[in-house]
C-alpha cells in the first residue's frame, strides 16, 4: 500500500542541491569500496572513466587508445542515479592490472590495499573475448583466497563491449552465474555507446543507499 506519511517528492529539490555528504532522505551514506577485476583490455579503466565523466566513450574527446594499467589505479567516483531523484553514491573504485601472472600483482602482494573493506567486486569480461569470461574463474579464486573475510563480499558480473558482436554462447554466462552464488547481479553494458550504463548506475546507487 502507498505510504502517505512520506512524500519523497517534496524533498527532491533540496536533495539535488546538496552535496553527497548530506544524509537527508537517506541519499548518500559512506563511501563504498569496489574492486574492478578482469582480464586486460575488457574495459575496467574505461568503465571508471565513463562513470566519472558521466559520458560514454563515443561522446568524449579522449582517445580510445589502449593504455595498460601497470599496477593499480584508485578513483573516487560519484554516481548519480539518472532520472534526477538526487540519489547519489560515492564509490572508491580500485582498478587493478589485468594480468594475474605479473611478478608482483596487487591482489596477491598488496591484498589489504586492493581488497581491504571491499564490499563489491565487479567481475568484468568483454563480449568479443571468450577467454576473458573464462579468466574470471582465476580472479574469483584469487580474490576469495586473499580476502580477509571481515566484510561480506558480493560479485557483480559485467559483460562490457555489448556494442561488439558476442563471440560466446550465452549459456556460458548463465553457467557462470549459477556456479558462483556470490554473484548477485549481472549487467550487459557498453562503455562505448553507454548502453546498460544507466541501469548499472541505478543499481549501484540503490545498493549504496541500502547499506
Ligand atoms: N568497442 C568497445 N570498446 C571498448 C569498450 N570499453 C572499452 N573499450 C576499449 O577497450 C580497450 C581497453 O579498455 P581499458 O579500459 O583500457 O581496459 P582494461 O585493461 O580492462 O582497463 C580500449 O581501447 C577501450 O577504448 C566498449 O564498451 N566497446
Ligand atoms: Mg586498465
Would you write up a description of this structure?
With about 210 residues, the protein is an alpha/beta fold. It has one domain (about 30-210): P-loop containing nucleotide triphosphate hydrolases (Rossmann fold), CATH 3.40.50.300. It has helices at about 10-15, 45-55, 105-110, 110-115, 130-135, 135-145, 170-180, 195-210; strands at about 30-35, 70-80, 90-95, 120-125, 155-160, 185-190. Strands 2-3-1-4-5-6 form a six-stranded mixed β-sheet, sandwiched between helices. Bound molecules: guanosine-5'-diphosphate (GDP) and magnesium ion. Magnesium ion (MG) binds near residues 44, 45, 69 and 95.
Provide a quick synopsis of the model.
This protein has 211 residues and is an alpha/beta fold.
Layout of helices and strands:
Blueprint: H1 8-17, E1 31-37, H2 44-53, E2 72-80, E3 88-96, H3 106-109, H4 111-115, E4 118-126, H5 130-134, H6 136-146, E5 154-160, H7 170-179, E6 183-188, H8 197-210
Parallel strand pairs: 1-3, 1-4, 4-5, 5-6
Antiparallel strand pairs: 2-3
This protein binds guanosine-5'-diphosphate and magnesium ion (MG).
**What series of H and E elements makes up the topology?**
HEHEEHHEHHEHEH
CATH architecture: 3-Layer(aba) Sandwich
What's the Cα radius of gyration?
18 Å
Return the CATH class: Alpha Beta
Strand order of the largest sheet: 2-3-1-4-5-6
The rounded distance between the terminal residues' Cα atoms is 24 Å
Q: What is the beta-strand fraction?
A: 15-25%
Q: Provide the low-confidence segments as ranges.
A: 1-26
Amino acid at each position: 500500500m502507498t505510504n502517505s506519511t512520506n512524500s519523497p517528492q517534496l524533498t527532491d529539490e533540496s536533495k539535488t542541491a546538496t552535496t553527497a555528504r548530506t544524509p537527508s532522505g537517506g541519499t548518500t551514506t559512506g563511501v563504498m569500496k569496489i574492486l574492478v577485476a578482469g582480464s586486460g583490455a575488457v574495459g575496467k579503466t574505461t568503465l571508471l572513466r565513463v562513470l566519472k565523466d558521466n559520458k560514454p566513450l563515443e561522446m568524449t574527446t579522449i582517445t580510445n587508445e589502449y593504455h595498460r594499467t601497470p599496477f593499480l589505479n584508485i578513483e573516487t567516483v560519484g554516481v548519480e542515479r539518472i532520472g534526477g531523484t538526487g540519489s547519489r553514491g560515492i564509490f572508491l573504485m580500485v582498478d587493478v592490472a589485468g594480468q594475474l601472472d605479473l611478478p608482483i600483482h596487487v591482489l596477491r602482494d598488496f591484498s589489504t590495499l586492493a581488497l581491504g573493506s571491499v564490499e563489491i567486486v565487479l567481475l568484468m569480461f568483454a563480449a568479443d573475448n571468450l577467454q576473458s569470461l573464462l579468466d574470471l574463474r582465476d580472479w574469483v579464486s584469487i580474490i576469495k583466497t586473499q580476502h580477509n573475510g571481515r566484510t561480506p563480499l558480493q560479485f557483480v558480473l559485467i559483460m562490457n563491449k555489448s556494442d561488439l558482436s558476442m563471440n560466446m554462447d550465452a549459456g556460458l554466462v548463465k553457467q557462470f552465474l549459477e556456479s558462483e552464488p556470490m554473484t548477485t547481479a549481472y549487467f550487459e553494458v557498453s562503455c562505448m555507446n553507454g548502453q546498460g550504463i544507466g541501469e548499472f548506475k541505478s543499481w549501484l546507487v540503490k545498493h549504496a543507499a541500502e547499506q
